[in-house]
Amino acid sequence: MKSREVHLVGRPPGTPTPDDFRVVEADIGDPGPGEVLVRNLFLSVDPYMRGRMRDRKSYVAPFGLGATMTGGAVGQVVESQVPGLFPGDHVLSNFGWREVFTCAGDEVTPLGELRAPASAYLGVLGMPGMTAYTGLFGAASLKDGETVFVSGAAGAVGSVAGQIAKIKGCRVVGTAGSAEKVRYLVDDLAFDHAFDYHEGQPRQHIREGAPEGVDVFFDNVGGELLQAGIGAMREFGRIALCGAISMYNDTEAAPGPTNLARAIGLGLNIRGFLVRHYRHMRKDFMRDVSGWLADGQLTYRETVYEGIESAPDAFIGLFTGANIGKMVVRLDDAG
Ligand SMILES: NC(=O)c1ccc[n+]([C@@H]2O[C@H](COP(=O)([O-])OP(=O)(O)OC[C@H]3O[C@@H](n4cnc5c(N)ncnc54)[C@H](OP(=O)(O)O)[C@@H]3O)[C@@H](O)[C@H]2O)c1
Questions:
Q1: What is the DSSP track for 300-311?
Q2: How far is the CA of 20 from the centre of ligand 1 (A)?
Q3: Which domain holds residue 60?
Q4: Which end of the chain has fewer CB atoms at under 10 Å, N or C?
Q5: Are residues 77 and 214 in the same domain?
Q6: CA of 199 to the centre of ligand 1 (A)
Q7: Does residue 220 line the site of ligand 1, with CB under 6 A?
Q8: Strands 214-219, 147-150: parallel, antiparallel or unpaired by DSSP?
Q9: pTM, to two decimals
Q10: What is the pLDDT of residues 153-193, one digit of tens each?
Q11: Which atom of ligand 1 is nearest to the CA of 50?
């Protein structure tokens, strides 16, 4: 059987371009004993993949040049030689940007009966949703009724983080990169205040939305917004350093926040985290977030690109703000 897959063919020093990727055709063998053949329905593109394009040691290994872009995907079993896995079963995998693959049965995670459309397992019910949940309750020890500031608030992680904080009775201020996203945060997600970080002074906007200061800052962006957020913190506030997407394409190290000394006087807790540091919270996450989805307290949006050849553009779009909610790629068989 033939499958198309996307290979990394360049290591850009700055912003990636479509030339850094190539779509190639591969032959896929039949599954042997203990193996399954899976056809992907949705592929995930995620900011952390940018770090993996560099040939240097990080918390995940770099992608190989001429090798497939690996990462999250949801698919359906086509053929199975694994007891308990049947054609039609939905599975989560980490083989990335490819249409079809064969692998050992224990290299996929069966999703069981779906609690939401399959693509949601790459977003709100998947790694980004769990990042939002664990960042708030694990890294930032969120308490009911606090004041929360979220950067990157209209994206996959940020939109879930802000909504969870609202569910917990918090006052929530968010920032994102366009007027449309600001409207989404206020009108659809019921944020108390939102602003476009391209307009005016972020510090001033945060003060308007949180006149008493911020207890929990969920930072997805870093750079100037991290500095503005530090400037808005109250005593004993907590900052969850989730990501720093504004710096991922930098070719030179950016200066750190100049106001870090505020953390001393205010007794701030600034904590970086990876979702995998909080694996033990998976059950709580699935119970709470699927419950909130089911009763309508939590909603989600996706930005969907079509076809495997669009995966590079979808990925590059993360750095130009092309997405609202989770960015996914739908493959031809997803219906
Ligand atoms: N710690 C963890 O375990 C973990 C896990 C998952 C994700 N993350 C991090 O969480 C962050 C969000 O990830 P996600 O998957 O939810 O992506 P996302 O927010 O859905 O997509 C990326 C968004 O980042 C914003 N952005 C891009 N360049 C920017 C810049 N220079 N300044 C400000 N905003 C910029 C864009 O929105 P605008 O239009 O608003 O600019 C874009 O839509 C990323 O930093 C990611 O690395 C961390």
A1: --EEEEESGGGH
A2: 21
A3: 2-122+301-334
A4: C
A5: no
A6: 19
A7: yes
A8: parallel
A9: 0.98
A10: 999 999 999 999 999 999 999 999 999 999 999 999 999 99
A11: 47
